[in-house]
């Protein structure tokens, strides 16, 4: 992708999601995964056939990660669960040791060592109402970044030495030095999104180390240089609220973007809640899985 290039995404799937989130590429089984938080639904799309399936585990499911052909790891209000794709049953993994009144999970990701990083948020997004947790293979949950209003996207640099984290209502992307044991050091704000550009939501890192940040209210996904904080590219969508993005496909060169119909005038933006796609000319990074 050329510096400062602006491209337009095309509609990929007519989805009508109230609050689309958590797009993922499952390379092992060549399928796409995403969720609708507000509807409590999980979706998959087979790359070879285009077949779309859905499940309704409920309770504001916000994240779905591939575990096996017939199981996904999901996060929702109440904690982390396995979802059985054959019968739709869910099995508890951990409740994070917290009380869930007024709280739900939000975005998250697995690191290269198989740990799950998952954020929480209060339904009213009150200041200090959420936290970022890490869950290891022994299912121990520990707060690693406390007291945020809306914990959001998590991703890593290509070499895994830096973790990036979206604190949505602070409008910031925070970077940490990331050690193999999951220790975070040298916290610093590297990107601040101005109000005119929207609110930072989910994000992904590409193979060149640049960050792709979905912009709620910003009509697309910005490409940012984490070393300078500068926006150096943009993928436009024809709806206000882009929520998250991921790279996938055989060459990891397809960018898929989820959006939301929530808080949108559907008479003006009838495609809100659909999924969009573009090939911006750069590849993404392979996704990691948990070792639960």
TrEMBL record:
Top EC class, one word: hydrolase
GO MF, any single term: hydrolase activity
Pfam families listed in its UniProt record: SGL
Entry's EC annotation: 3.1.1.99
Keywords carried by this UniProt record: Hydrolase
SMP-30/Gluconolactonase/LRE-like region domain location: 19-260
Family of this protein: Belongs to the SMP-30/CGR1 family.
The name this protein goes by in its record: SMP-30/gluconolactonase/LRE family protein
Domain of life: Bacteria
Lineage: Bacteria, Pseudomonadati, Bacteroidota, Chitinophagia, Chitinophagales
InterPro entries in UniProt: 6-blade_b-propeller_TolB-like (IPR011042), SGL (IPR013658), SMP-30 (IPR005511)
Keyword Hydrolase appears in the UniProt entry: yes
């Amino acid at each position: 992708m050329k510096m400062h290039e602006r491209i337009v995404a095309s509609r990929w799937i007519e989805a009508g999601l109230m609050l689309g989130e958590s797009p993922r590429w499952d390379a092992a089984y060549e399928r796409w995964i995403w969720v609708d938080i507000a509807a409590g639904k999980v979706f998959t799309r087979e790359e070879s056939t285009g077949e779309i399936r859905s499940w309704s585990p409920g309770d504001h499911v916000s994240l779905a990660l591939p575990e096996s052909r017939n199981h996904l790891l999901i996060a929702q209000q109440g904690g982390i669960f396995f979802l059985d794709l054959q019968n739709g049953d869910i099995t508890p993994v951990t409740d994070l040791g917290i009380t869930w009144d007024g709280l739900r999970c939000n975005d998250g990701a697995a690191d290269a060592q198989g740990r799950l990083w998952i954020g929480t948020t209060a339904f009213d997004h009150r200041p200090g109402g959420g936290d970022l947790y890490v869950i290891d293979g022994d299912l121990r949950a520990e707060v690693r970044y406390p007291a945020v209003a809306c914990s959001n996207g998590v991703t890593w640099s290509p070499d895994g030495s830096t973790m990036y984290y979206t604190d949505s209502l602070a409008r910031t992307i925070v970077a940490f030095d990331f050690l193999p044991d999951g220790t975070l050091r040298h916290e610093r704000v590297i990107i601040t999104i101005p109000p005119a550009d929207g609110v930072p939501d989910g994000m992904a890192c590409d193979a060149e180390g640049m960050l792709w940040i979905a912009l709620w209210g910003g009509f697309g996904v910005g490409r940012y240089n984490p070393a300078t904080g500068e926006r150096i590219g943009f993928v436009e969508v024809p709806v206000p609220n882009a929520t998250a993005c991921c790279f996938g496909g055989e060459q990891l060169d397809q960018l898929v973007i989820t959006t939301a119909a929530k808080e949108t005038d559907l008479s003006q933006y009838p495609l809100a809640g659909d999924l969009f796609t573009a090939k911006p000319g750069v590849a993404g990074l392979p996704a990691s899985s948990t070792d639960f």
